[in-house]
Amino acid sequence: MTDLPDFDDSFAGPIDHAKYYRALGWQVVPAYHPKQQKNFKRPALNEWREYTKELVDDGTFEKWFGDNGQYSKVKNLGVITGVGSPCLFSVDLDFYSHSDAAIWWASCEDMQEHAGELDTVVQTTGGGGKQRLYLAPEGWRPPTNKTSIGVDIRGVGGFAMLPPSEHSSGNGYSWDEGCEPWTIEVAVAPIWLCNFIDETVARYGGGSGHVNQFGLRTPTPLHQETPYGELLDGREDYMMRLVWARMVDLYREGPMGLDRNTEIIQRDELFSTYLRKTHPRLSNPNLSKEELLEQEGRGRSAFNIKWEKAKRQWDGKVSEYAKTPKPVNSYPAPVSDFTAASRIDEIIKVADLDINNSHVQKDADIFECLSVLDIYNLPDPKFLIDGLVIESGLGFVYGVPGCLKSFITIGMGLSIASKLPEWWGRKIHKSGPVIYISSEGVSDMKFRIRAWAEKKGIDASDIPFILIQQSMNFMDVNCVSKLIKTIRVQSERLGATPAAIFVDTVSRVLPGADENLQKDMTLFINACDALKQTFGVATIGVHHMNRNGGTTLRGSTVFDGAADFLLHVERENGAMAGTITARKIKAAIDGWQDEFSVSLVELNTIDHHTSLFVEKLNLEAPQAQETPSKDQGFGGKQQTKAEPDMDQCRRMVASIGEAWDGGYPWSSNKNSRKTERYAADKLSAKFGVSVDQAEKLIRQWLWNDVIVVEGYRVNTKTTSTGLKVAKGL
Fold first, then answer.
1. pTM here?
2. How far apart are CA 472 and CA 468, in angstroms?
């Protein structure tokens, strides 16, 4: 601090203080003493409001506080806030009489965007409260208002007592150590604090009501409801109380800490409760209830923030409050809305309120039951890629090495990131940045992207497709946290959260894990859930096929159970065609198969590099047939006179089984024609049916599980797939 007089508060009197405050540019004026009048917190001037707009001249100040000034013997003084003291305003926190004020300030501390942002000049009032002084940023007019929660703002036209004034309690006003105006500068208030002050004044100013759009003060209920009992007002406070109560209960059940899987289950179940018991103010028939709440800042993002804040207090306030006995039939009930962004550690009375005051009429120790109406109100799944990838789902693209599964997922990611309208004929409903995690095969990643871009006629240089090539461990909580932080940084840089995250391959992010152990693979699923919950993003893993044959993913069945979709990729070695089969899609029809072609792309580079490009083959869809009867073929489709009867179908299926047993199984993949294994050709030649008829029958038998596609060992190094008769037939 420069150009200020030397000051030693140990030897300074009221006049010395007044002169120093004036040197700071503050409009300091004399104030009443408690002995003079009960309402002493006022300027001791008849027309003091004339001094609210600009600093008084030196002559007037000397008349007041000169050596022989009119108020030189008066101990009490204060500052007129607002324009007259270069936009100075005070935040007065009455901690002594209002515990709510402490929680309000804790909210502010939680909202800091960087450390020390709120550090400023602070005094302790004679009544035991705290008064913090700030400078208003340009464009914001600090209000002057007394609220019902013990948070008083003194801005334009306001007045605040200053040290060394005396309080009616007999205590003096004093600057906090290290926060004196001669030690630190008055901070400029951050914009978010100004907005929070405006919100607080609007809701609690004058003790009740809020200022509406017409500038009129109207009464506001603390917790307004819909006719169905859903909260419209007080939702953030209700959210906070739900989270706090659940965290305390979890501590009581297991104080050693939460494992990630339990935490995710508890958090998701609690958010579902909140979702059913609240209602958005916004209205949009094209958006779900959850999406509307998210737009209002009352959705999952706010919920997750409150959960994390509560979790950080696990060994602090959570543990302290968990020591108190848990009353019977207790559950959090909504209270005042000002705690919307509060720091959870200050809330110490919210978990054990009588159930009669609760908006959730249930015991915390029983499972919640949903009515049919509740089930109807659950949010609908939203597709990222139509009929395949859910926006916040988990899926796997898998196959044997060399089947080109990575080329397929890279193309999928680039299509999402580049805002293409579709991928392989399926509409892309949501575009956005894509995070692609891959520590293998990254040396030719640029060639794969170039090939895709050239075939699509797109300049990919500015596509928000982000590659993370460092090795990582999804079984390590710290590593997953680092990944989340990395994605957050990229989201801020790109101005949008990712639409999809790809992990290529799954085995690369599970170093040292046993893929067949459920507990190990559950950690991977938990990590994916953490990404989903943090960013609301689809996570797609690239994985290998079971070593023991079959058409399933390698490793634990945890993968299959957790997946929202499974895509099986097949391609004969060296073939320029292949298929993908939808083995599982939870939210849509599965069992379909798409054929793809592979082309070699010569890149426009100095060294004339090449790469492969994979795209869907546009084949004419087979026409639908009528409902089957009992005497029709295995496929369950109505047979025409030209089609084989039941007996011939049985013999055809038996031939497929014989080929498998003979060690040279037939294939449903057309690119197996070069090795003379294409099943439709074989059936056509042996039984005199057309190739088209054979292909239709094979599709029907696959759909009805008469035959299956399974893997088999060609030699010590090569694995392939073929048709096999299902067990039990």
1. 0.44
2. 10
